[in-house]
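Database export, one record per block. Field names are fixed; values are copied verbatim from the stored entry.
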Amino acid sequence: MEDELTIEIDGVQYTALYSVFGDTLTVSLPDESQRYTELRGLNPISAARVHLRAYVGGVTKQKKQEV
């Protein structure tokens, strides 16, 4: 089962889908890439949020360089 996580940064919403199979978290980012984490006791939502925030950080950094 996939769940959805949305964060808003600088007025822009970013959404990722995530799922957990066994102890492995899979996060599908807005650019359709995927990230994986072995949870080992971590909260899945918190771990998914870290991946999404890192993605957003890369996107916003790239946009600033283009300006």
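Remark 1: The CA atoms of residues 16 and 29 lie 5 Å apart.
Remark 2: The helical segments are 44-66.
End of record.
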